[in-house]
Design a protein that fits this description.
Length: 180
């Protein structure tokens, strides 16, 4: 087994059409995430699936179809699935303990939403000393609103990935990752 983990963040049905928080480009991001996951499996990387639940909220309701990991990136038999209740996948979960137990030094991040859980997890991974790589085209987000202005999803994605690339690790495409 390698010392690398693929962290698959919140690729749950809630983000697909019919869910409560559909994201722009979720199908393309999930297809790229599936390629990254397959590549990781072929290379003996640890695949860690993260699932968000929000008890008492109108989204990510425990036990709902929305909290299920989408079938396009379904965990394989025996792959860990960690449930979280906060944007940061490390906060109050066993993620760090699992990575440390397995001798992981490098994390590859894919998933949703770029501006929330991907961002919080990548920053935390960097703070914990892991070498981080975010696969930008295997992540998805949505348009946001601030102070009366709508920020298109493409601009949100560009801003988030450029911020991560500025200090928190490498940000590359699926093709570049697989070509290594």
């Amino acid at each position: 087994m390698s010392n690398r983990a693929i962290i698959v963040i919140d690729l749950q049905n809630e983000y697909w059409p019919g869910g409560n928080l559909p994201l722009e480009g979720i199908d393309a991001a999930a297809a790229n995430a599936a390629r990254v996951i397959a590549h990781g499996r072929e290379n003996g990387d640890l695949i860690v699936n993260i699932r968000h639940e929000m008890p008492g909220a109108p989204v990510f309701v425990p036990g709902s179809v929305g909290v299920e990991i989408n079938k396009s990136v379904a965990p394989a038999q025996g792959e860990p699935v960690i449930t979280k209740n906060f944007p940061n996948s490390f906060r109050e979960t066993s993620l760090k303990d699992l990575l440390d137990e397995k001798g992981i030094g490098e994390v590859i991040v894919v998933g949703a939403m770029s501006h929330m859980c991907v961002d919080a997890t990548v920053r935390a991974a960097n703070d914990f000393g892991y070498t981080t790589t975010t696969i930008h085209d295997a992540c998805a987000t949505r348009e946001l609103e601030f102070n009366g202005a709508t920020v298109p999803a493409a601009h949100v994605q560009t801003a988030m990935m450029s911020a991560l690339a500025f200090f928190y690790g490498e940000v590359i495409s699926t093709d570049a990752f697989i070509a290594r």
